[in-house]
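Task 17 of the worksheet. Students: predict the tertiary structure of the chain below and write it out as structure tokens. Keep your answer in the requested format; marks are given for formatting as well as content.
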Amino acid sequence: MFTNTLPIIFSSSQLIGPLEFFIIFSTLFGIIFISAPFPEPDWEMPDVKSFSLYQYLLAIWNGALGLNKLFWPFFIVFNAGLYGADALVQSGMISVSSWSNIHVMMLGPVLWWTLGVWRGSSHSNSRLWIALARLMVVSAYIEYVMRFYISKALPRLFFNCEELLMDYFQCF
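Model answer:
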């Protein structure tokens, strides 16, 4: 997350600088930490090994799993998807509109992940981990806003427009 967007925003835009981003991110973390629920001390983790994939996804949706079991798998897959889409569009293998379509398709699972993390975040050992997991979920939406801004305001800096013959006019 933020591997391609922050350097472009910081270097080529007057939208926000590193200091402002750090202040906003720290303030957001403080607000999320204050509003985070306290961990449930008597909660027991269900046996995930007996779950099918659909039962696992339903347990995440209901918030019935521990925070580490519902946060990390999707966080890794989400970031791999973002990185893969960026690598494909910068190499010219997919068009700008395909890059946008990938992000729209990933938005549904991000909404599902948000609800799962918010519902199941009290199943953790520490309030700090609860706040950090929720901050990363909010960061996914900040990443989406930055990507939309780059695609609309700074497309020639991110997309390999010389290689894209079909969508060349989307780079202007």
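Marker's comment: The chain is about 65% helix and 0% strand. The chain has a mean pLDDT of 86.
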